[in-house]
Amino acid sequence: MGAARTSIRRRRAVPWLVLGLWIAVLALTSPFASKLADVQRDRAVDYLPASADSTQVAKIQDRLPGGEATEMVVVYHRDGGLTAADKETAAAQIDRIAGAHRLTAEPQGVPSKDGATLMYPVASNEPGTDEKARDALVNDVRDIAHSEGGLSVDVGGTGALQTDAAEVYNSLGGPLLYTTAAVVALLLILIYRSPFLWLVPLAVAGMADYLSMGVAYGLNQWFGTSVTGASSGIMTILVFGAGTDYALLLVSRYREELRRIERPYDAMVAALKGCGPAVLASSGTVAAGLLCLLAADLNSSRGMGPLGTVGVLCALFAMLTLLPAVLVLLGRRVFWPLVPRYGSTPKVRRSLFAAMGSSAGRRPLTVLASGAVLLGALALGVLNLPGALKQEDSFTTKPDAVAAMETLAKAYPERGTQPITVLAPTDRADAALAEVRDTQGVAAAERGRSGDGWTEISVIATSAPQSAGETKTIEALRDRLDDSLVGGASAQQLDLADTNARDRLIVIPIVLVSVLLILIVLLRSVVAPLILVAAVVAVWGAALGIGGLVFGPVFGFEGMDPGLGLLSFVFLVALGVDYGIFLMHRMREESLKGIDPVTAALTALRTTGGVIASAGLVLAATFAVLTNMPLVSLVEMGFVVAVGVLLDTFLVRTYLVTSASVALRRKVWWPGALSKEPAGAGGERPEPVAEPAGVR
Question: What are phi and psi of 197, to 5 degrees?
Answer without folding.
Answer: -60, -40
